[in-house]
Batch of 4 targets.
Target 1
Amino acid sequence: MKKLVILGGGYGGMRIMQKLFQSGVPEDIKIVLVDKAPYHCFKTEFYALAAGTIPDNHIRVAFPNHPQLEFINDEVSHIDLQNNRVELQNHEAIIYDDLIIGLGCEDKYHDIPGADQYTYGIQSIEATRQTNNALNNLPRSSRVAIVGAGLSGVEIASELHESRPDLKIFLFDRGKMVLSKFPEKLSKYVNDWFQDHGVTIVNYANITKVEEGILYNHDEPMKFDCIVWTAGIRPNKVVRELDVEKDESGRVVLTPYHNIPGNEHVYVVGDCASLPFAPSAQLAEAQGDQIAQVLLKRWNGEDLPDELPEIKLKGILGSLGKKQGFGLVAERPLTGRVARLLKSGILWLYKFHNG
C-alpha cells in the first residue's frame, strides 16, 4: 500500500483530494491529510471574521469523507526529505511515498522590532479569532491601526468600519495610494471610499518599530488601542527550513509538474510554491488540479504530457463592506455593487461544492 501524505487542507489540498476522489484513487493508495485545524477554512474570508461581520462557522466546512482517507489533526514540526519522513508535534512520524506540501504562509514582519509581539494578524484561524476578540472588545472611539494596504488590509479596514463605525481606523500604506499595483481607476475608487467613510489613510508610511500600543511611523510614535498586521506574507516556517532551492521570496522552486527538482515524489502547492503569480486561493486550486492529474498518471504508469496547460487566472475581487466591491475580471476594472455580488456568488458556489 502506497501512502500519499498531504500537509495542509487549504485550497490546494482540498482541490487535490476532490480531483483524486472524483477520478478514482487506485486501490493501493492511502491518503493521509494532516492539518492543525479540524476542518477546512475559507482563508479569503478571514478579514470578515476578524472584523466581526460573520461568525466563524460560516467560513469552514468538513474535510472530505472517503474510505481511503485518514485525517490527522496535528501540526507539522519537520519534513525530512532524505528519509521520506514527516514529524508531527503530537503524533508519531509519518513515512510517505508521495508528499504534497501545502502548509500556507505566515505574516512577514520585515525585521521590524516588536511587530511580531504587539500586532494581531489574520493568517490562521487561531490568529483571526484572537484578532476578532481584540477588535470587538474595544471601547467606543478606540484607535485601530491596520498596517499594510494590500487586498487584506483594504478588506479588513472596510469591514471593520461596517462592523464598528464607532472606531477610529487608520490604514497605513507604503505607497502614494492604496492598492497601487491595481489600475488607477480601482485605486482611486477604493481611496475615495475610505475618505467618504472616515477611514484615515496614511500614505508613504514607513513603520520602524512597534511597542505595546505604539506604532512608530518614520520613527514618530503614534498611540493605538489595537494594531493589525497585513503587511506581507512568507512561507510557513517548516518550508523555510527545507534545504531546497527557493526564490527571493523564500518560496520553493518547482519543475513544470509542480514537484521539487530531482524528486518527483514531493510536490508543493499554494503559498509556498514559486509561481509567476501572487499567491491566491484561485492559484492554489488551479495548481491542485494539475498536481492531481500528474499524480494519477504517475500512479497508473502513464507518460506525462510534454507540458501542462498554462495556468490562467480569471481575475481578482475584493470587498468594501457588504455592499460595495472592486476587482479585475478578464483584465477589466470592476467597481461597486456588481463586484461585491460577484464575490459573494463565488463564495456561495465554493461552499456549495465543498459542503
Note: The domain at 109-231 is CATH 3.50.50.60 (FAD/NAD(P)-binding domain).
Target 2
Amino acid sequence: MTIPSLPLLMVEPVVCAALLEDLGRAGDLTTDAIVPPSERARTALVARQPGIVAGLDAAATAFRLVDPAIEVSVQRPDGTRLAPGDLIATIAGPARGMLTAERVALNFLGHLSGVASAAATLVEAVRGHKARICCTRKTMPGLRALQKYAVRVGGGMNHRFGLDDGVLIKDNHVAVAGGIRRAILAARRGVGHLVKIEVEVDTLDQLEEALATGVDAVLLDNMTPDQLAVAVRMIDGRAIAEASGRITPLIAPAIAASGVDLISAGWLTHSASVLDIGLDWQA
C-alpha cells in the first residue's frame, strides 16, 4: 500500500530547525574552507543494512534548503524494502551544499527508516492474526508527525496524535477521579459526541467495571497472553481491545493470538534503532 507523503508544510519547519541547529552562528566552517564554490558533485544514498526506507522527503528537503540547485533523484521510494548495497537515491549539484546538508539529511533518513523497519518487524510478527500494530505518543519532541508517518510506512497504524484527538483514561486519571466508573462518566460529560473514550485497565475486575459503564476501547496493560484471551472473551466485541506493555517481536505473536484488535508499542518511536544509510561520493 502506498502511504501519502506528508505535506511539505509539515516537513520543512522540522528540517529547517535541524539545519539551523547544525549551522550554528558561522555556518559550515570545514566545507566553506575546503570546497570551492564552483565545485559540483554526484553522490548516492546507499543502504548499509536491510530494512524499510522512510524519510526521503525530509532528506531531500535538507539538501534543497541548503542549496536549491541540488537535485535528488529517488530510485527506491519510502516503503521499499532494502538490502545492503541498494541504491536509494542519487544527489547531484553544488558540492558545498551537499556536504553541509549531509548529516541532517542522513539523521532524518536513518532514524525514520529505523522506525519504519521496527514497525515492519512487529507487523510481520503478527501476520495471520487480526491484530494491528500501532505506535503511541511516546515520540521525540518535534518529530511526532514524521515518526508516525514512518510507522505507517512500515505497515503499522497510529494511536492518538495528541491529547486533543481522543480520551485515554490512565491510572492517574482514575486515581484522581476516585474510580474507573467516575472517570468514564466525567470524561463523557466533558467531551463532544464524536470523541472516543478509551480506558486503561490492569486487571479483569477493572475491565468488568469499564465495560459495565461503557467505553469505546480498553487498553489492556501488561497482561499475559492468557489474561488477554480472557479479557477478549469478556469484551465480546463491545469495545476495541488494545494490548500494550513490554511488546517485543518474540511475544507479539502470542499476544496477537489472544484475539486483541490492536497492539501498541512506544519503543517503535522512542527507541527504534537507526537504519544504517550512507552518502557515497561518486567520481
Note: DSSP finds eleven helices and twelve strands in the chain.
Target 3
Amino acid sequence: MVGAPSEFDDLTPAEQVEKYDRLFGIVADGVIGAAGGLVGTALMTGVLFIAASMGAFSFESFASLTLPIGLTDVASPVTVGYLIFLANGMVPFPLLFAALMEYLPGERPPVSGLFFGAALWTGFAMGFYTGFQGLALVLYLGFTLIAHLVYGFSLGAVFEYLANRPDSLV
C-alpha cells in the first residue's frame, strides 16, 4: 500500500538500516539453522543406521512421535515420526542452539555444538529407549551419544561456515 504508515517511518536512515539488518540477521540465523539442522540430522541418521544394523537402535521408536498428535493410524507411523524428528532437528533445536551458543562452553561453534548435542542426547536416550539390555544397551547409549555429538558438531560447523555475522542476533 502506498502511503501506509510503516514501522520505519519515524526512524533516521541509519536507524532504518540497523533495524533492517537486525531483522535480516534473525531470518538469516533461521535459514542457517535449518541448513545446519538438515546436515546434522542427516549425519546423525547415518550413525543411527549403523547402530540399527548392530541391533542397538530401532527406527520403530520414531513411531512414538506420532502419539501426541494423534497420527498413530497413518499408513507409516515410522516415516511420519522420522519426519517429525527431522523437523525438530531443523527448526527448534537449531534456533535453541543459536540462542544458547554464546553461553555454551567452547571458543568456536562446533565445540559449543558438541556440548549442545550431549545435552540433547540425555532426552533422546530416555525417550527412544526400547528395552535394550546388556551389550545392546551399552551400544545403544554409545551410538546415540556419538550420533548427538555428530549432530551438535555439524550444526555448529555449519553455523560457523555460513554465519558471516557479528555476535548472535537472537
Note: The chain is about 65% helix and 0% strand.
Target 4
Amino acid sequence: MFLVYFAIIILIPLWAQMKVKSAYRKYSQIPASSGLTGAQVARKILDNNGLYHVKVEETHGILSDHYDPRTKTVRLSSNNYHGTSVAGAAVAAHEVGHALQDAQDYAFLRFRHALVPVANLGSNLSWILILIGILAGISGFLLLGIVCMAAAVLFQIVTLPVEFNASSRAMDEIVAAGIIRNDEERETRKVLDAAALTYVAAALVAVMELVRLILMYTGMASEEE
C-alpha cells in the first residue's frame, strides 16, 4: 500500500513536469504572428498598464522565468527573452500577470508573500519533528511537525489562485494588445494550462502527504491512550 502511495506522489509531479516541458517544447517552435520577442511582449503589456517602472531582464536557465516583487522586475529566461514563439509570448505575459497583481494589491498574492517566512520555517522544521516523533514514538513531536507542514501546504494551496489568475490576466492582455491572433489563443492557452498543472500537482501531493501524516498521528495518539 505504501509503495503504491509513494509511487503516486512521485509520478504525479513527474507527469506534470513532462506535460509542461512537452507543451513548451512544441509551442516554442511555433513563431507568434506578432513577431515580438518575449521581452517586447512583457514591455508592451507593462507599458499598456502604466507600469513603466517595472523592469524586464534576461535570466539564465530554462523556464526560470519569474517576477521579483522586491525589485519590481520581470525576469525571462534567454529563450523567452529573445525568442518570438507562441510559448515565449505566453510565458512573458504570465510573468507580467504577476506584476499586474502586485500593482493592484491582489489579495492572494499579498497573502502568499506574507506566508513565505512561515512556510519556509515550517518546511525546514516539519520533517525533523516528524522523524523524531515517528522514531521515538512520541505523538506530540509528530503533531508539531504536522502543524509546521500545514503552513507549507497552505502556501502551496494559496499559490494556485495566484497562478491561475496570472494566466487569466495574461490571456486577456495579449488578446487585447493584439499580440496573438484568434487562431493562436488555443496554443497559448495550452502553454499556460500545462504550466498550471505543475502547481496543481505540487499542491495535490502536499495535501496527500499531510493527510497521511494526520492519519498516522491519530493512530499513534490512540495507541498512547
Note: The chain has one domain: 2-224.
